[in-house]
Each structure stands twice: as C-alpha cells, then as structure tokens.
Amino acid sequence: QLNANYEATYIAEEQISGGTKTWHIQLSPKTAADFKLADLWIDVDGTVRQSKITQKNNDTTTILITSIKKNPTIKGDTFKLAFPKNVEKVRG
User: Fold this and answer.
1) Rounded to whole angstroms, how far apart are CA atoms 41 and 19?
2) Residue 39 CB-half CA count within 13 A
3) Are 64 and 50 in contact (CB under 8 A)?
C-alpha cells in the first residue's frame, strides 16, 4: 500500500538531535493528498524517530520523538476509571 500511494526516496544516513543515527526517507504522494511531502527519520530498529510534514503552502511541522520505552510493563491500575459519585455506570 505504501508503494501504491507514495514515491519513496532515500535521502541519506543522518544523525538527529540526541545523536541517534537514522535513515532519512522522503515520501511524495502519488495522488492528491493533504500534504506535499513527508520526511521520516528511521532508526536501526525500524522506529520512526523524527518526522517532518510539508504542507502544500510550504508550512512545515516537525516532530522529534525522544525517551522511547519499548515494551514497558504497564500496571492494570493505569486503565482503572474513577467515576464521580453522581455518575451511574452502565455496562454495555
């Protein structure tokens, strides 16, 4: 599906902020899309570490992902909902 919808171009091996080595890949939509370009910086594990979206008017949004924790243990209490006393729980 990626190949059908985007032209992928390898730009270079680059270091992003924090020193992580990545492969810089640029995606260009093959058909009409909400953006002009998407740049991705992918680490050796295949994780996207940074992305930059270029809009049709050349505005850009860059996101740098840091402090990644892969497969951390999550306690069940994290998902426990606390309802106020005046709220009725309805099971569906």
Assistant:
1) 12
2) 17
3) yes
Among candidate residues 40, 39, 32, the one with its CA nearest the CA of residue 56: 32
Helix (H, G, I), strand (E, B) or coil at 61: strand
pTM: predicted TM-score of the whole model, two decimal places: 0.76
Q: Is 32 helix (H, G, I), strand (E, B) or coil?
A: coil
**Angle CA 33–34–37, to nearest 5:** 75
Write the DSSP symbol of residue 71: S
- 89, pLDDT greater than 80: no
Here the tokens at position 15 are 């270091």
> Which is nearest to 61 in space by CA: 24, 36, 43?
36
CB atoms within 10 A of CB 26: 16
Q: Which residue, chain included where needed, has tokens 């059908």? A: 4
